Amino acid sequence: MDNLDRARELKEAKQAGQEALNCLNRAAESLKSAGNWGIVDMLGGGLISTFVKHSKMNDAEALVQQARSALKRFQKELTDVENVEDFHIETGDFLAFADYFFDGIIADWLMQSRINDARAQVENARQKVMYIMRQLNEIPL
Question: Which domain holds residue 87?
Fold first, then answer.
């Protein structure tokens, strides 16, 4: 691979990494909001806070899907430069169902736990992307 090809590949990897990081940042913000609404819900917020929390979770899930796609593209772009581990963030449909129909502290606590798990996974992915981006920035052309 000549320097021109290497520079092009590096540029593409950096662009894909930045897009993945942007998606992860948006997902993290959305999960934080869902978590805040989850706390309100656990403190007795009622049906409205349950609805808002689930709306925020749906937003977060869509943003996580975008982040997954961006990370797959980043991983593909890195094949010539570096490898990135796969990661998965999933929310359970049963917990959403249980939260609406059994609006109790146990279901609220389980959903809050899932939100916190997803936040931790997004943060872990963000840290990995930032680490790889630092490595990419140190590669001489």
Answer: 3-138
